[in-house]
């Protein structure tokens, strides 16, 4: 039995034909329409027509706050045409097969719990370092969504405990995502805003650029602080870090150094977070969306 699995991002729609064991049999991507839901629907209809004779259902990973039980996209992230939409019903109007939806970061958690870094964990947290900071929480062997489907929206955590009324707000998603790291390097090197990406930052860091390494140290120090906060809140077995820059061994080297620093200098005794790399990289949302689909429609394969 095969499934069409679709990971909708702000700039690209990734899709894959997958079997029950999450083997990717075919894959590709198209540009995410930015103008209207009708244009988006036309892209999905094209994919369905191509695979309709071979699939038993469609699984979506979507940005935004997702009510997966009711099939609604409460918010659509940067895709505002998905705000307050009966998404599943709209898709099934043109694709008459079982359709499921889940938030993209929560799909990453499901992927890691099913076949990745959270396998055999009772409690875990996934932190995805992208443009902002995505995340998800796995508690007592289950994905935890919260009362409003928004648990794990780590980007919105306020990070400045000394904030005074009238001051600018500091969010983890602003400072803790890859864009925050790039912004710090751009400032140090007096480069124009949005002129570099994470790949360029780590190219310089791996070459031993002193200024960039200092920025990376400061960035991972702030990450380590938040990992201690997550450990205090949820007491997970593991914190798994994903996103494109998680492929960089230097990132984890600096995280470990700053975790050790905090362990030595914090005045209270705390459980030291176990921080690991996510097993799944760019395919995490696809794998998790499939697992969610299997959970919603049939007995999942162990």
TrEMBL record:
Keywords recorded for this protein, A-Z: Kinase, Transferase
Coiled coil regions, renumbered to chain: none
SUPFAM superfamilies: Actin-like ATPase domain
Top-rank lineage group of the source organism: Bacteria
GO molecular function: kinase activity
One Pfam family linked to the record: ROK
Organism field: Tolumonas osonensis
The protein, known as: Putative NBD/HSP70 family sugar kinase
InterPro entries associated with the record: ATPase_NBD, ROK
Gene3D superfamilies for this protein: 3.30.420.40
